[in-house]
Amino acid sequence: MVSRNLNTALNTQMNKEFYSAYSYLACTSYFQDEELNGFANFFLIQAREELDHGMKIFDYIHRVGGHCILEPISPPKKDFKTVLEPFQTGLDKERELAGEISRLFQIASSEHHAPTQVFLQWFVNEQVEEESLFTHWVKRVQRVLKDSNGILRLDTELLERMPEGGSAPKSSH
Question: What is the mean pLDDT of the chain?
């Protein structure tokens, strides 16, 4: 059984993960509108990963006798001025999530709740990967930002990106 404090913190993180999925779907929509389907593919994969992260926490809360509280999801940013902006926004979001995971880990540590500490270790490692991924793509997009051929090359490259261990996401486009 988790404490009320830890349950609240887990719920907060779960809802932030769901919000991140929603934000990445908005980026997907932006890129589909721009007919940059590779970029859309990148963000669709990210949206599904964030949804999976939220569901991991959802399931965990129930396994440890907690109670899930799903909060309303605020509208995400949907209007971007450049193809770089969604990637920079994503990097900022992943850095924020990493900080939140660290704070959640500290709560679990201060309450000596070892199961949650072990559970959160996966998220700590995942955030390192997510920040690295977004840093990589921010740098790549920055290099070609004013070169439409470069943008199209990156778009083609991102169209081939596959989710971990799986097939390409199905999109309406």
Answer: 94
Cβ-contact 113, 7 below 8 angstroms: no
Neighbours of 160 (CB within 10 A): 9
Q: What are the structural domain ranges in the chain?
A: 4-68+81-159
Global pTM reads 0.92
Kindly report, residue by residue over 133-157, the tens digit of the pLDDT.
999 999 999 999 999 999 999 999 9
CATH topology of domain 4-68+81-159: Ferritin (1.20.1260)
What single letter denotes the amino acid at residue 89? Answer: T
**DSSP 8-state code for residue 164:** T
Distance CA 20, CA 15 (A): 9
Instruction: Provide, for the chain, the percentages of residues in helix, strand and coil under a 3-state DSSP scheme, each rounded to the nearest 5.
Output: 75, 0, 25
